[in-house]
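Hi F.,

I've been meaning to write this up properly since the lab meeting, where we talked about keeping a consistent format for the predictions we share between groups. The idea is simple: the sequence comes first, exactly as it goes in, then the structure tokens exactly as they come out, then a line or two of notes. No screenshots and no reformatting. I'm using this chain as the first example so we have something concrete to point to.
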Amino acid sequence: MEYVYGIHTVESLLRRNPKSVQCLLLQVGRDDKRMAALLELAQNQGVAVSREPRADLDAMVNGRHQGAVARMSAAAVQEGSAASNLWRESDLLQAVENKKGPMLILVLDGVTDPHNLGACLRSADGAGVDAVVVPKDNSADLTPVVSKVACGAAEVVPFVRVTNISRTLQALQERGVWLYGADGGAEKSIYNSDLKGSLALVMGAEGAGMRRLTREQCDNLIHLPMAGSVGSLNVSVAAGVFLFEVVRQRSAPDK
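Output, unedited:
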């Protein structure tokens, strides 16, 4: 069994992929407006609902469930993802070739903390990212923790696991996507960079940053100016700042 939990995450799942949910488990005694809305949504989608004691829900998941847990089989999780936002590398490249306007892709080169991955997905959704790319090895994967932190974004943002990041980056370059690597030691600032064209923002692992070969493959290295005594930001916070600078530049009127 797989469990997805948290009111926002469960609501998103019920709206976008209700067939993957075997049963919605709601905490006994919670009858507030948010819980009533979740119950009504589940009933409208034909999803079975069971009331469970809080202690039982606590034992099912390792996190703050807010009184709402969706129970799914592992097969349903994989099938649901494949039908919605779990892409292959070929899907990503096809999307690049088909899109009329500039692409915005987030590449996470070895982010292993599920909380950071979930936060990156949430920022990616807010910034209108076309896809998030991660390596199959040495990277966090979509898990209930990621879904909880992402608050629904894990079910909608196209998510691409690739065997070879370097090969994928090269394929993107060949299709006109510029690679911008986030590097604290870079000379060029994000605010002095033109980010209006098709680009992939490459973020490195927590602490270690990008791998050497990934860094060397980037077309441009850019840094985020830091005014205080702290030398860097958490990868998910930095990703959000970088992504929304892209959004700001693309939405600014031409002078």
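Notes:
Confidence is low (pLDDT under 50) at residues 79-83.
The chain has two domains: 2-81, 86-251.

If this format works for you, I'll send the rest the same way.

G.
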